[in-house]
Amino acid sequence: MLRLKRTLLFSAITLVFTAATIFVTGTPVTKANTDVKPKAIYKVETDKKLVALTFDISWGNKVPEPVLEVLKKQQVKKATFFLSGPWTLRHPEIAKQIKDMGYEIGNHGNLHKDFSNYPDSWIREQVQLSEKSIHQVTGVKTKLIRTPNGDFNPRVIGCLNGMGYKVIQWNTDSLDWKNPGVQNIVTRVTKRVVPGDIILMHASDSSKQIVEALPQILDNLRKQGYQFVTVSELLSNASVSSKVQ
Protein backbone atom coordinates (compact mmCIF):
# COMPACT_ATOMS: atom_id res chain seq x y z
CA MET A 1 0.00 0.00 0.00
CA LEU A 2 2.83 2.39 0.92
CA ARG A 3 4.60 1.63 -2.37
CA LEU A 4 1.38 2.39 -4.29
CA LYS A 5 1.00 5.74 -2.53
CA ARG A 6 4.61 6.65 -3.38
CA THR A 7 4.07 5.74 -7.03
CA LEU A 8 0.89 7.83 -7.24
CA LEU A 9 2.63 10.77 -5.56
CA PHE A 10 5.58 10.60 -7.98
CA SER A 11 3.21 10.46 -10.98
CA ALA A 12 1.31 13.48 -9.70
CA ILE A 13 4.52 15.49 -9.27
CA THR A 14 5.65 14.54 -12.80
CA LEU A 15 2.32 15.66 -14.26
CA VAL A 16 2.51 18.99 -12.43
CA PHE A 17 6.08 19.58 -13.63
CA THR A 18 5.19 18.73 -17.24
CA ALA A 19 2.12 20.94 -17.20
CA ALA A 20 4.14 23.82 -15.75
CA THR A 21 6.80 23.42 -18.42
CA ILE A 22 4.25 23.45 -21.23
CA PHE A 23 2.60 26.51 -19.68
CA VAL A 24 5.88 28.43 -19.44
CA THR A 25 7.56 27.37 -22.69
CA GLY A 26 4.69 26.19 -24.84
CA THR A 27 6.69 23.02 -25.56
CA PRO A 28 5.92 19.59 -24.16
CA VAL A 29 8.80 17.87 -22.39
CA THR A 30 10.05 15.00 -24.52
CA LYS A 31 13.25 13.03 -24.63
CA ALA A 32 13.98 14.52 -28.04
CA ASN A 33 14.03 18.14 -26.89
CA THR A 34 15.72 17.51 -23.52
CA ASP A 35 18.62 15.75 -25.28
CA VAL A 36 19.31 18.62 -27.71
CA LYS A 37 22.82 20.02 -27.17
CA PRO A 38 24.12 23.41 -28.31
CA LYS A 39 26.51 23.09 -31.25
CA ALA A 40 29.06 25.16 -33.10
CA ILE A 41 29.31 25.07 -36.88
CA TYR A 42 32.56 23.82 -38.42
CA LYS A 43 31.51 23.05 -42.00
CA VAL A 44 28.54 21.86 -43.99
CA GLU A 45 27.94 18.56 -45.72
CA THR A 46 27.68 19.20 -49.45
CA ASP A 47 28.83 17.74 -52.73
CA LYS A 48 29.24 21.24 -54.15
CA LYS A 49 32.74 22.66 -54.21
CA LEU A 50 31.88 25.63 -52.03
CA VAL A 51 34.09 27.12 -49.31
CA ALA A 52 33.73 30.08 -46.97
CA LEU A 53 36.83 32.21 -46.54
CA THR A 54 36.76 33.80 -43.09
CA PHE A 55 39.04 36.45 -41.61
CA ASP A 56 39.21 37.46 -37.93
CA ILE A 57 40.28 41.03 -37.12
CA SER A 58 40.95 42.27 -33.60
CA TRP A 59 44.17 44.27 -33.89
CA GLY A 60 46.07 46.65 -36.18
CA ASN A 61 45.67 48.52 -39.45
CA LYS A 62 48.63 47.34 -41.51
CA VAL A 63 47.30 43.98 -42.68
CA PRO A 64 43.53 44.46 -43.17
CA GLU A 65 43.71 46.80 -46.17
CA PRO A 66 46.34 44.75 -48.08
CA VAL A 67 44.14 41.67 -47.53
CA LEU A 68 41.20 43.58 -48.99
CA GLU A 69 43.37 44.64 -51.93
CA VAL A 70 44.28 41.01 -52.65
CA LEU A 71 40.62 39.98 -52.56
CA LYS A 72 39.71 42.86 -54.89
CA LYS A 73 42.53 42.10 -57.32
CA GLN A 74 41.60 38.41 -57.33
CA GLN A 75 37.93 39.34 -57.82
CA VAL A 76 36.82 37.48 -54.71
CA LYS A 77 33.44 38.99 -53.99
CA LYS A 78 32.35 36.65 -51.18
CA ALA A 79 34.05 36.33 -47.77
CA THR A 80 33.14 36.73 -44.11
CA PHE A 81 34.98 39.01 -41.68
CA PHE A 82 34.59 38.63 -37.91
CA LEU A 83 35.31 42.00 -36.30
CA SER A 84 35.94 42.83 -32.66
CA GLY A 85 34.12 45.82 -31.21
CA PRO A 86 37.18 47.85 -30.12
CA TRP A 87 38.95 47.31 -33.45
CA THR A 88 35.85 48.46 -35.34
CA LEU A 89 35.71 51.70 -33.32
CA ARG A 90 39.44 52.33 -33.74
CA HIS A 91 39.41 51.72 -37.50
CA PRO A 92 35.95 52.66 -38.74
CA GLU A 93 37.17 53.48 -42.24
CA ILE A 94 38.44 49.93 -42.77
CA ALA A 95 35.30 48.39 -41.27
CA LYS A 96 33.19 50.51 -43.62
CA GLN A 97 35.37 49.45 -46.53
CA ILE A 98 34.69 45.79 -45.71
CA LYS A 99 30.97 46.52 -45.69
CA ASP A 100 31.11 48.61 -48.89
CA MET A 101 32.96 45.81 -50.71
CA GLY A 102 30.00 43.56 -50.02
CA TYR A 103 31.63 41.20 -47.56
CA GLU A 104 29.68 39.59 -44.75
CA ILE A 105 30.42 40.86 -41.24
CA GLY A 106 30.23 38.77 -38.08
CA ASN A 107 30.88 39.46 -34.41
CA HIS A 108 34.25 38.61 -32.79
CA GLY A 109 33.42 39.84 -29.32
CA ASN A 110 34.66 42.83 -27.37
CA LEU A 111 37.50 41.97 -25.00
CA HIS A 112 39.64 39.20 -26.48
CA LYS A 113 39.14 36.81 -23.58
CA ASP A 114 37.92 33.21 -23.36
CA PHE A 115 34.15 33.22 -22.91
CA SER A 116 34.14 29.93 -21.00
CA ASN A 117 35.89 31.60 -18.06
CA TYR A 118 33.02 34.02 -17.49
CA PRO A 119 29.31 33.87 -16.56
CA ASP A 120 26.51 34.27 -19.08
CA SER A 121 25.84 37.85 -17.95
CA TRP A 122 29.40 38.86 -18.86
CA ILE A 123 29.19 37.07 -22.22
CA ARG A 124 25.93 38.84 -23.10
CA GLU A 125 27.41 42.20 -22.13
CA GLN A 126 30.53 41.66 -24.23
CA VAL A 127 28.63 40.50 -27.29
CA GLN A 128 26.16 43.38 -27.03
CA LEU A 129 29.01 45.90 -26.76
CA SER A 130 30.65 44.53 -29.89
CA GLU A 131 27.31 44.28 -31.67
CA LYS A 132 26.61 47.93 -30.88
CA SER A 133 30.04 49.07 -32.10
CA ILE A 134 29.76 47.17 -35.38
CA HIS A 135 26.25 48.47 -36.00
CA GLN A 136 27.27 52.04 -35.15
CA VAL A 137 30.08 51.98 -37.72
CA THR A 138 28.74 49.74 -40.50
CA GLY A 139 24.98 49.57 -39.95
CA VAL A 140 25.21 45.78 -39.80
CA LYS A 141 23.27 43.85 -37.14
CA THR A 142 25.45 40.78 -36.63
CA LYS A 143 23.94 37.29 -36.41
CA LEU A 144 27.10 35.20 -36.70
CA ILE A 145 29.78 35.07 -34.02
CA ARG A 146 33.24 33.61 -33.73
CA THR A 147 34.29 33.67 -30.10
CA PRO A 148 37.68 35.13 -29.16
CA ASN A 149 40.35 32.43 -29.46
CA GLY A 150 37.60 30.10 -30.72
CA ASP A 151 36.89 29.31 -27.07
CA PHE A 152 33.53 27.92 -25.99
CA ASN A 153 31.72 25.12 -24.22
CA PRO A 154 28.08 23.97 -24.41
CA ARG A 155 27.03 26.60 -21.85
CA VAL A 156 28.64 29.41 -23.88
CA ILE A 157 27.05 28.20 -27.10
CA GLY A 158 23.67 27.95 -25.40
CA CYS A 159 24.01 31.52 -24.17
CA LEU A 160 24.97 32.81 -27.63
CA ASN A 161 22.22 30.82 -29.34
CA GLY A 162 19.81 32.40 -26.86
CA MET A 163 20.94 35.80 -28.13
CA GLY A 164 20.08 34.78 -31.68
CA TYR A 165 23.64 34.00 -32.76
CA LYS A 166 25.08 31.09 -34.71
CA VAL A 167 28.52 30.14 -33.41
CA ILE A 168 30.95 29.73 -36.31
CA GLN A 169 34.17 27.78 -35.94
CA TRP A 170 36.29 26.38 -38.75
CA ASN A 171 37.25 23.07 -40.29
CA THR A 172 40.51 24.22 -41.89
CA ASP A 173 42.88 26.37 -39.84
CA SER A 174 45.58 28.22 -41.77
CA LEU A 175 47.58 28.85 -38.56
CA ASP A 176 48.61 32.11 -40.23
CA TRP A 177 48.79 33.87 -36.87
CA LYS A 178 51.77 31.67 -35.97
CA ASN A 179 53.64 32.97 -39.02
CA PRO A 180 54.99 29.49 -39.88
CA GLY A 181 56.14 30.54 -43.35
CA VAL A 182 54.15 31.52 -46.43
CA GLN A 183 54.36 28.11 -48.08
CA ASN A 184 53.30 26.33 -44.90
CA ILE A 185 50.18 28.49 -44.71
CA VAL A 186 49.37 27.82 -48.37
CA THR A 187 49.92 24.09 -48.02
CA ARG A 188 47.85 23.76 -44.85
CA VAL A 189 44.81 25.34 -46.49
CA THR A 190 45.04 23.85 -49.96
CA LYS A 191 45.77 20.29 -48.78
CA ARG A 192 43.15 20.17 -46.01
CA VAL A 193 40.22 21.90 -47.71
CA VAL A 194 37.05 19.90 -48.41
CA PRO A 195 33.68 20.82 -49.98
CA GLY A 196 31.59 22.83 -47.52
CA ASP A 197 34.66 24.00 -45.61
CA ILE A 198 34.95 27.03 -43.38
CA ILE A 199 38.54 28.28 -43.60
CA LEU A 200 40.08 30.30 -40.77
CA MET A 201 42.47 33.13 -41.61
CA HIS A 202 43.31 36.45 -39.97
CA ALA A 203 43.55 40.01 -41.22
CA SER A 204 45.02 41.28 -37.95
CA ASP A 205 48.53 42.70 -37.85
CA SER A 206 49.70 39.60 -35.96
CA SER A 207 49.30 37.63 -39.19
CA LYS A 208 52.40 38.92 -40.96
CA GLN A 209 52.46 36.40 -43.85
CA ILE A 210 48.82 36.14 -44.90
CA VAL A 211 49.04 38.92 -47.51
CA GLU A 212 51.73 37.01 -49.40
CA ALA A 213 50.09 33.61 -48.87
CA LEU A 214 46.54 34.62 -49.80
CA PRO A 215 46.98 35.00 -53.61
CA GLN A 216 48.49 31.52 -53.80
CA ILE A 217 45.67 30.08 -51.68
CA LEU A 218 43.02 31.67 -53.88
CA ASP A 219 44.67 30.54 -57.13
CA ASN A 220 45.10 26.98 -55.86
CA LEU A 221 41.54 26.66 -54.58
CA ARG A 222 40.17 27.91 -57.87
CA LYS A 223 42.30 25.40 -59.76
CA GLN A 224 40.74 22.72 -57.57
CA GLY A 225 37.32 23.94 -58.68
CA TYR A 226 36.22 25.71 -55.51
CA GLN A 227 33.84 28.67 -55.43
CA PHE A 228 33.88 31.25 -52.64
CA VAL A 229 30.72 32.04 -50.67
CA THR A 230 29.88 33.75 -47.39
CA VAL A 231 29.27 31.68 -44.28
CA SER A 232 25.55 32.44 -44.46
CA GLU A 233 25.41 31.32 -48.08
CA LEU A 234 27.30 28.17 -47.20
CA LEU A 235 24.82 27.36 -44.44
CA SER A 236 21.91 27.82 -46.82
CA ASN A 237 23.36 25.24 -49.21
CA ALA A 238 23.45 22.19 -47.00
CA SER A 239 22.68 20.58 -43.69
CA VAL A 240 25.13 21.57 -40.99
CA SER A 241 27.86 19.24 -39.81
CA SER A 242 28.49 20.28 -36.21
CA LYS A 243 30.18 19.09 -33.07
CA VAL A 244 30.49 20.15 -29.48
CA GLN A 245 33.68 20.55 -27.47
UniProtKB/TrEMBL annotation:
The keyword Signal applies. The keyword Endoplasmic reticulum does not apply. Keywords: Signal. Pfam families: Polysacc_deac_1. Residues 49-229 form the NodB homology domain. PROSITE patterns: NODB. Transmembrane segments: none annotated. Residues 1-19 form the signal peptide. NCBIfam families: spore_ybaN_pdaB. This is Polysaccharide deacetylase family sporulation protein PdaB. The gene is pdaB.
